[in-house]
User: Fold these one by one.
Assistant:
Number 1:
Amino acid sequence: MSFSTFGFSEPILTAIDEIGFVTPTAIQLAAIPAVLSGKDIIAVAQTGSGKTASFLLPLLERLIDKPKVKANQVRALILTPTRELSIQIGDTLDSLRKNLAMRSQVVYGGVKINPQMMKLRGGTEILVATPGRLLDLFSKNALKFQQLEILVLDEADRMLDMGFSKEIIKILALLPRTRQSLLFSATFSNDIQGLAAGLLKSPVLIDVSPHTSVAPTIQQWAYEVDKEQKAALLIHLIRSKGWGRVLVFTRTQKGADNLVKKLLRTGISAAAIHGDKSQGVRMRTLDEFKAAKIQILIATDIAARGIDIDGLPQVINFDLPKDPQNYIHRIGRTGRAGTEGQGLSLVSADEVELLANIEALTGQTLTREIETGFSPSHKIPLTKLQKSVPKKPRKPKLKKLNSCKIDRI
């Protein structure tokens, strides 16, 4: 099946061809017709499944014949949890709308608000925004929503995890009740079900893959290592295996900065990206990593869903995440769109329980490896690590959506 079967207008089909999209993914096959029909939807899909295009393409088609909005007005609003994801969506949107007489803007915090206010004066058909900056702009009368017709909540579960529930409630109170609402999430938790109950009207539920799954194209394993030897092992792996660009996740900002210092001391090009960095630094660092000017990018979970890099071969968990769901989002930065990737975890004895939680969630037992060419100064036998066995993952209970009808796809 090709994208032409959806009935897209010629300018959109041309943009699709120029980008290189060939065959629709599972989420695109299910979501695009539902969005084109004007229905509210809940779409659950793992990271890297192509869900951004699954709402951008039909959104553009639905707005293609609409007149331009008035000053400070918005026709479609896309809410995202992070600056990086907003920029990523904005870049994809620019590529898809370039043959259309349609405006779009991206707004987020961490930068001066006045330039964003100036750009919104003439109105914009599509606005991509983080919740906090959106409310700031509204409070300054830079935004109006009387002409809004479509709302998209992307990475809705991540927004709730990051504490945006109050901001989302405030935003929903500002929007017209008559609108199409689209909720995209990597998980279908009770919190997401509760949000959907208050947001959507007779939604279509699209669940193209289990929320606990990892893309089959990603090879996963765990290295057993003493906690104090993790940095030395990472350096050894980078050099002995000849890795180029590598994305490494740490649990804390301090841990990310400390790891960068250790890598730089050995002559390995590295930089960190996390919430304590300014937006300008984060954008510049990410651009340099994409351009291969930086070999190793160290990130915290704030970037787990906001980094989209073509052909990223390795993702390494320097520290295992406390929330096992974040493991899926982290390694989902590789093996995207059907490509092959590797997800490695450096696991110390104090992370045995975290590893067991990950394996329980994914239903997979990670292969344990000991790097034969690595000779640490001391090593702790990880007997517990060898014995961690995942429990059968539980399926989420659908209790909180009784107030609205759901059609499943």
Note: The longest strand covers residues 218-224.
Number 2:
Amino acid sequence: MEALDQQFGVTAAGSTVNRELRAGMTTFLTMAYILVVNPSMLSNFGATGIPFDDALFATAVAAFVGCTIMGLYANLPFALAPGMGLNAYFTFAVVLGMGVPWDVALAAVFVEGILFLAMSMPQIPVIGGFRTTMINSIPTDLKIATGAGIGMFLAIIGLREMGWIMDDGATLVNIAATETFEYNHGAFISMVCLILTAVLMARGQKGAIIIGIAVASLWGWATEAYDPYNDFVAGGAGWASVYATWPDPSAIGFVGLPEDTLMAATSALGDVGAEGGTTVGMFLMVMITFLFVDIFDTAGTLYSVGRQAGYVDENDELMNSDEAFTADAAATIVGAAIGTSTTTTYIESVAGVEEGGKTGLTAVTVGVLMLTGLFFSDLFQNIPTFAAAMALVVIGAMMMRQAADINWADAEMALPAFLTMVLMPFTYSIADGIAWGVITYCAIKIGMQKHDELNPVMWGLFAFMAMFYLGPGDQNTIDWLFTQMGLN
């Protein structure tokens, strides 16, 4: 314990080793779903060609690498794993939609990770340290709105996975049919445990979120509860079992090294531009998209979680941001090399922060626990979705505190901040919320003839984002330029 305290400066940070370990466990439990969801997404029941076990191995190892570097190098309590949204884009847009082979798609992520690493290190000429410069150049209120928007994003994810909201053709979303809820219905169990967690937190109970998840899981297993989010026939995602079942103790075993995906990304680079292979333009477009989304997903998440954790200083700058971005980039490179889409910092890290996590020991704890997915995949697959989902709603509520710090009386900031917040849940994308917040902020400043209030970085972001989202016909401007140059 003393060695851990000295390594991570736990006492100096005002924490204890036990609290850091508990915080790591809390974060892990709220994001352990990725050990099941990411392999399921990337394999898509065999449609993409990526084996489930290979993707599971890559998910666990990429998370371990990212969390370990974040903990030891940046000494921040932020966890990393392959990102949701990015894996959906990888699977449905790139591989199944564009017809890009999965190994070439992994190559695009691999190259993106290398560029990301270069942009994270101040020692690299021209582009080194750009990510930190960028996040520090965005107006404070927009960054605060990012945190509140992520809270709303977490809430809609959590309520959907709890079974409390559903899609509606007329109103987009609607409340579920609550009159059907019974003692063994996941929505009922998760709401009871959500209230239980809130009561425990209000009473100052340590580990309240873990207790809530544990009670919901045990209740679900004991009653074989219906998990509405996983009922594909009823409109759910269908990633896991429709009914909660006890983990099988005999299913413990190592999943094994990847058979097909190990270093496939580097091998596939030779196919880009070759006759019959993926065109250079297509490859660049996919790589740029991964880079764009990764930059803003990570920047927004790091700032928001860092602010919640007290790691944003009086100059509105995130502590050890270069080191944090480096951890993210390194994990992306490793993950792509062994078989998974982009690795990024997780918004669920707030769960550990709320439990008192203050140092890198929290992140390392998450990383080590992620490796258990190589042996206990059956246990994590059996944690009911609704059990972990209620924690996301609690965290979302905590993150909404930040909205009070926005200067809503500033007419030039109110709309950009508002769009930043609401577009995240409504588009299911952190990057889209940040992008349109920046676009509208710059457009309003231009309309007010206050060009001098926009720094060079904001001008560059405005131009790039406008090109990324807008363009002639059904193409964005970047894609159109590639077409004109004969790269597509």
Note: Residues 2-250+281-484 form one domain.
